[in-house]
Amino acid sequence: MSAPVANVPKQNTRGRVIFASLIGTTIEFYDFYIYATASVLVFPALFFPDATEINAILSAFAIFGVAFVARPLGSIVFGHFGDKIGRKGTLVASLLTMGIATFLIGFLPAAQGSFVILAPIMLVILRFAQGLALGGEWSGAALLATENAPKGKRAIYGTFPQLGAPLGFIIANLMFVGLQLGLTPEQFQDWGWRVPFVLSAVMVAVGLYVRLKLVESVSFTNVVEQKKVAKSPLATTFKHHWRPVVAGTFIMVATYVLFYLMTSFTLTYGTAKTTEQAAAAAAEAGEPFDAAAFVPGLGIERPLFLTMLIIGVVFFGIFTLVSGPLAEKFGRRKFLLLVTTSILVFGGAWPLFFGPGTAAAMAGLVIGFTLMGLTFGPMAAILPELFPANVRYTGSAVAYNLASVIGAAPASFVAIALWQAGGGNTVLVGVYLGIGAIATLIALWLTRETRDVDYDNNVA
């Protein structure tokens, strides 16, 4: 007679953990980035047809910033359920929310006729829903990866959900480049821009299928078994762990400022006309041109600049993966102090890259996105490690998304205003990045190293 088999708890396989954390954030960031790209290429004319060109762009970016206001609320809502009922169901809910909102954006009418006011309002509502979902998605994906990581490999596993950011960006922008090259400008403006939003439904279906097969992590299971589930995760977080919330928020600030300068701002600045191009266009149209009042950009064609961005983001992806082993070897704090100092130096050199021309801009994109990968990769490890397991979802989500309000939400808007104030010179944009880097350096300097915390049994 054979011996009875022990009742071994189910565990997530390594492949399932990596794929589920990667596919989820890839979808989420894809959804987020197609909005960011459309904010530059389509939405100003579609939803603000009566505004001046620069005011239409600023209005589109203002709605873009609505999501960053929603993200802290999303971190509270999804963090609450992630710490109360578990990571799996919360991750499914965040993905569904993001997917439905993005899909519906693809069917919005233009702001004309009876929809002249209603269309922008509907865009704001759906953009808010996107931000709400992303507010809960990142932390859950980071916990999915790190709470299932082998000992000594949390930072390495944590790079996989982070890799979803460059992958989502590349997929989104490849789609926009293909549509712009394959369609006439009229076709793209009329219906082509809607295709990436509608097709997101396919990716969401794949992500849901994978996530529904997950089982809960050992960390959360230990919380339940020890009867340490927080009655109010948010209240517990701010009562007993407010210092890590503040530290985590400012640890992320430089990362957010850098990323949105490298993507949304550079796309606007890089594709804006030079003084010569604007003068020629005005002469061809028989209109007067005031060179003194004009604020020039680099004048690069949009398909070319999107291609340049995609090349830069490849470096983002590569160095996101490189950052994991380095953060594991040297520790999160020491490694990020070095990277953030490099971001500060890059801010000082900003006008050397974004001003002279196409070749310099390409070099700037490669360097900036390399730094982005190195700073973004370890965040999925260091932010959750600041908090005990029973408030880890809430704490890391709130810190991550408060940083988005401070670092990401105003970045594109402020950078455009500084570019305008500089009359086309981007030195003030570099100063803005440097200020973000200094804030992060201070937070890192005041934060303890988290590499060796007992992750599974760290319950407050």
Automatic annotation (TrEMBL):
Record-linked CDD domains: MFS_ShiA_like
InterPro entries found in the cross-reference section: MFS (IPR011701), MFS_dom (IPR020846), MFS_trans_sf (IPR036259), Sugar_transporter_CS (IPR005829)
Span of domain Major facilitator superfamily (MFS) profile: 17-451
PROSITE patterns linked: MFS, SUGAR_TRANSPORT_1
Pfam family, one: MFS_1
A GO cellular-component term linked to this record: plasma membrane
Membrane topology: Multi-pass membrane protein
Keyword terms, alphabetized: Cell membrane, Membrane, Transmembrane, Transmembrane helix, Transport
Transmembrane segments: 17-36, 56-78, 90-108, 114-134, 155-179, 191-210, 245-263, 304-323, 335-353, 359-386, 398-421, 427-446
Localization per record: Cell membrane
MF GO annotations: transmembrane transporter activity
Keyword Nuclease included in the entry's annotation: no
Protein name listed in UniProt: Sugar phosphate permease
Organism: Zhihengliuella halotolerans
